[in-house]
Amino acid sequence: MKAKKILSAVTALTLLPTAGALTGFIPAAAAENSTVTVRLDPSDASPFNNGEFEGWGTSLCWWANRLGYSEKLTQAAAEAFFSDEGLSLDIARYNIGGGDDPTHNHVTRSDSKVPGVWETFEYTNDGADVDITAYDVTNDQNQLNIALAAKAANPDIYFEGFSNSPPYFMTNSGCSSGAADAGSNNLRDDMYDDFAEYIAESTQLLKDNGIVFESYSPMNEPDTNYWGANSNKQEGCHYDPGTSQSKMIVETRKALDEAGLDDVLVAGMDETSIDTSVNNLDQLTDEATDALGRIDTHTYSGSRRTQLKAKAQEMNKDLWMSEVDGGWDGFGLADRIILDMNGMMPSAWVMWDIIDVHKDSDFRDPSGNATEANNSVNYTSSLWGVGMADHDNEELVLTGKYYMFGQFTKYIEPGDTIIASSDSTLAAYNKDTGDIKIVVSNSSGNDIDYSFDLGAFSTVGTDVTEIRSNRDGSEQWATITGEASLTNKVLDTTAKAGTVTTYVVDGTGAANYGVISGAADSLELNATVDLTLETDLTGDVEWSVSNPAVAEITADGALTTKALGTVTVSATVAGKTFSRTFNVPFTGTINGVGRELRVGSTAQLSLTANISGDVAWSVSDTGIATITPEGLITGVTPGEVTIYICFNRRAYARKDNTSSALHSYRNTVMG
């Protein structure tokens, strides 16, 4: 006969802290109502652009080149993406095309063959330089139309110019899509100054036509092997890290200065990978480092966000997330925004091609194929961009990704300050108005309760506005009432399943902050921690506690715990009081259960704890195992059982780390 046994999940269970009880253990009656607590930390704020967010944006490349022929599509795009009624985007990256050899016909996309703004050129006698003898901005009229409409929709829009490639006649391959060897430099060694001059003259040309670049990035994903001659996709140009990239930055700075455009900063290097950005910044020459006005990075790959943030601070440069997207739905986009913004805290976040899908029955690729005739999207589509341009009907078809993007772009605004929150949230506040903005992404199938601790702010308003977009589209920037509550600087709410939700807590005027730091939320009994107040205020700090029986505090912030319970510590400076609540919990270890307990066998459980008291034991299913009030457990039949502890007449259950099942000590009885 096969031996039957109870398999213990662990051999000894450490009881972790929780408010007023066994943490990790929670009161059995409330065990299923887990709440995510997030303490906003304005002392951990974006260090870039003097702490002020510059905005959200999109590249105009390539969709503007594709849509700008149609006045109807142009106006629809301006309203959908740049107006206050739409996404209210603040930044547009304008692509100055290099322009390919007019005899080439290898690009198969309908949107990515961006024309150069040059009209004619000639080489010098020795062939070492080239003079562009005529410019014509109407070559790029489609993109210009979109840019001007965007500016009309948002007069405060920030334009950044950027290049994917120099003109074909400045390249080694004679092709603006890349080199014969995609991992080799394609800009001719003797043409760096010529290309920089083209950038400067194009910048002036656009300025003369109403589009003023505030920055220019001369390279795009330069340290890759993406850019090969005769590519069917797009323009591109490799630049080796170090000398080559440094030279391009320096020459661009010189050319802009010589053209009287010294107010246009040079950005770079727009590497595709965060990790590559970190590595290649170290390889710039001192002259290039001085010439570089801001770090732009893409986040298609790599993970070293905190390192890039630190590198930018070390170099005393501002930082943008200047391009990313993917075949995501709205939740995928929201998750990437939260990851990038919390990890790097850049002063801008810019999407790639905001319209990347086109339906056009008339379009034919170079081989004569009608590649766009049958394109379609639906509301829940995962796609690059946020929708589709239907050229047959001259309309935009927008997906849920558009509305979930707007949960960020419409409410976190230029001038706000990004601050630390949590892995599923993005938070910001406005120093002048005191408004606090929080975006919560919940892609799961379950509602999630959140409690946001706003105690670090000197003043918090009494009104909160909730705006929500959901998976099926029945809510699109919908104003929700009656679901969020704001009491004593705590915002309690439920993030509904399958939603992205924005909360705007109205401010009461200029806000100061104070963050009590130096310890975790849970403290050990009979221990001392040294607390400090991180604040933008000056003056002496006065410390006090709400419950001296639980803990006492000295004049310099040394907090000593004396008994179990909760205690609120307050710090007052310059007439402002900031508070933080700590918990001194029961902790202990269950002893006496080995790795196995056979059916019919017994084991005596005991509890080693940080205080003394009466312990009683019980189980969830006496058909699987029985236990005496004194802790003697006996295996009965195969199965799984939950053990409950009643300590000093209060029952607790422990929540499993990997499931929502509640248990203090879960055992499986196996045959």
TrEMBL record:
Keywords: Signal. It holds the Pfam family Big_2. Residues 510-583, 584-654 form the BIG2 domain. Residues 1-30 form the signal peptide. One of its GO terms (molecular function) is hydrolase activity, hydrolyzing O-glycosyl compounds. This is Ig-like domain-containing protein. It comes from Candidatus Ornithomonoglobus merdipullorum.
